# Entry
Amino acid sequence: MNRRELLKVAGLGSVGVAALPLTAGAAEAAGGQPSFHLVSLSKANTVDGVAHRFFMAGDGQISPRNVVGGGMFFHADGNTPPPRTLLAWGSWKAKRLVEFHPIGTYGSQEAGFLDMEIDLVRDFPSPAVIPAMLEVVCNSGFAGLSTPGKEEGFYLEIPGTIFVEGGAGGRFEPAALGITTFSVVNEQRN
# Structure
């Protein structure tokens, strides 16, 4: 089934074809699904003398209805001298695709943003599974592709904590350190 047939089945017809960015075709032509990769640092507000910093690394695959992937994280106090005081660490796993919005491609790279529900699987200070919302943003300045109002990196909200929009800590937002990218090609070897 090609993309046009898929959209007709989904009831999107020609309006959906016109609304979809060119990148969907690029991923389809590459014989695979878009993927994401991140190694990045984000920061939240300083609360009670603790400058909250959150480092994440990981990767995964994006399909029209799903996202799979995961990686590692650590949460540290940016106010302490190196080595920074670790507040938590563990792994994370993608749970549900909320939205993937590509805005264009440049070679094999794709710019846009990905919103997903994840689980933070904390190993320290005590084992726990913590639901969170993760947004990965990739801007390609050298290609003139930028998401309006969104900085390169990741945004992280942890419901039920101070790390939400309007919470004392605020959500974690990009700290201009690291890289995020989407790829429209996937190696296919037999």
Notes: The first helix runs from residue 3 to 9. The longest strand covers residues 85-106.
